[in-house]
């Protein structure tokens, strides 16, 4: 199922109360402040008071964000407010607004296999992932699992004086899904409800020595992969990046493919491009030796679909010994075929400037 964000649910309640332009009389804060403020409103830490009952002048503000037709104001501007958002309780009762979301968890069962530098990186990624969950769900919807004493001490040291998220037991959830790049089936919102634990492996592998180890995490439960058109390599693989994709996908009217494309990172693009060049490169042979090329159509397609820049093409070129982008007209000059190291090579007498679009040495 798909979920509505806390800020959408609070905005809906405000509209029912006849409030369409509440103004923050406090500093909004970090991250998706509207969503985080919605959580605080529901908890009673922030309150909403209608302008007519506030008893003080409310200066106009500017629109900080609009949700479900409600304009949230703040700072100074020209929009007149019809209510204020303050610290402490207000006059509107939000107790009937319920936030029901799945839990995003990070598994610690492989923690002991991580190097010290990898453990530190894991903690940083978890900290960012926790913030992302607060931007889409609530702080209650992030947790860690399979935590032993070493892992618990590590988190307490990193997040002191207090670890801001909870530890949960797997058996407390009716539905558990492990995100695993080697799974057979793809992740879908149709398998997710508020009783679901979506588990990400706490693996930070700087040398690929733990490649494939996600399969060891709870093999008895569902394992699902996130792909882009069936491809795993281009999907970002850091914990916080995966968390962002999952949360955005579950709260927006977009396909998983669309969300993955929006969240591609430079590292994921480069990783995919290096592997793809190895598979897609076309080899030519002439008097100067062996040359590697990529058809212009594919080169343009990768630029348009993935936003791959010249910088990334240059970086990836070193992985295949350089390549050039060629026009289809080059195939008209092919005199025959041969094999080099068991692979097909096109023999040409010469390659002219009119056949070459770009060279990446």
Automatic annotation (TrEMBL):
Residues 89-301 form the SAM-dependent MTase TRM10-type domain. Keywords: Methyltransferase, S-adenosyl-L-methionine, Transferase. This is tRNA (Adenine9-N1/guanine9-N1)-methyltransferase. It comes from the Bacteria. It comes from Desulfurobacterium pacificum.
